[in-house]
Amino acid sequence: MANLLVTGGAGFIGANFVHYWSAHHPDDKVTVLDALTYAGNPANLRGLDQVDLIVGDICDTALVENLLIRHEIDTVVHFAAESHVDRSITGPDAFVTTNVIGTHSLLKAARKLWLDAGSGRPHRFHHVSTDEVYGSLGPDDPAFSETTPYAPNSPYSASKAGSDHLVRAYHHTYGLDVTTSNCSNNYGPFQFPEKLIPLFLLNCLYGRNLPIYGDGMNVRDWLHVEDHCHGIEKVLQAGRAGETYNIGGGQELPNLTVIEEICVTVDQAFQEDASLARRFPDAPAASGTPSASLKTFVTDRAGHDRRYAIDETKARSELGYAPRRTFREGFAQTLAWYLANEGWWRPLIERAAQAR
């Protein structure tokens, strides 16, 4: 039996991990620490009555120390982060505070309780990072591996790179048992509707424009969030201390291809379910118009990386990791979840509209 502290566990990836871990490891105790900023939502943990949600800031080192003691934590899974690139361009301070200083706060608490206190308790500090720390690839460049030099291009990716270096340093300097995973673009249930896939999905339902940056040919590797959780599980179970593992979805696609898949899948859903036209009368698909009619091209964002791709050979060979879904399968499941959970996302849309 393990006792986990999951930081950012009320956010998108963190909440999916808590659901995944609770289902696959029901005897383990999970405590969530989340500041419940705009992207953290207690509703993401609904149905997990056995999980303790602590509202607090990872920068509060004393709070973290108290949680490690009180809940006898032996495993930290660190998701808490500011993660939206556009927000990092307009307001980078919060990214440095949460992603760098917050990660250091957690590491200090873990070192104090697990090492300096001399308990001898076996432990693991797993840090969840991103492929964006590696920078941008050319069209013919090999995919990112764990040995690719860091070259972050946005305040977001720079802050994540800083946190990755701190985690590595705490292993090599102090002997803290750490692992890091760098993942590709996640999608799936509970994703806050500012990211591409939920934003465009919901815009199709509302009949709003689909704003495409630049020429739409920026390439990303897409990873269903449950496949990501499966990868983290593999790292926690068999990852070697001090090592980094890249977790990808094996679905390297241009944004235009992703957007076309969203439009086609939404249109098919309306064709198969007549009730959707009544629920979402503003959707082009409600009147038989293709959702693709909403596509519009806008000025590219500053510092927009051209291509990301993940080489997950190390995770496959050492851990037995492999993604279980194609993008088409994963997005169909994601659309079905959003259509079945309007009560989850509609309040978020309404709050965002009121804040404008």
From TrEMBL:
Keywords noted in UniProt: Lyase, NAD
Transmembrane regions listed in the UniProt entry: none
Domain of life the protein comes from: Bacteria
Catalytic reaction(s) noted: dTDP-alpha-D-glucose = dTDP-4-dehydro-6-deoxy-alpha-D-glucose + H2O
KW NAD (keyword) present: yes
Keyword NAD tagged: yes
NAD(P)-binding domain sequence ranges: 5-333
Catalytic class of the enzyme: lyase
EC number: 4.2.1.46
Cofactor(s) for this UniProt protein: NAD(+)
GO MF annotation terms: dTDP-glucose 4,6-dehydratase activity
Entry's family note: Belongs to the NAD(P)-dependent epimerase/dehydratase family. dTDP-glucose dehydratase subfamily.
Protein name according to UniProt: dTDP-glucose 4,6-dehydratase
Organism annotation: Sphingobium lignivorans
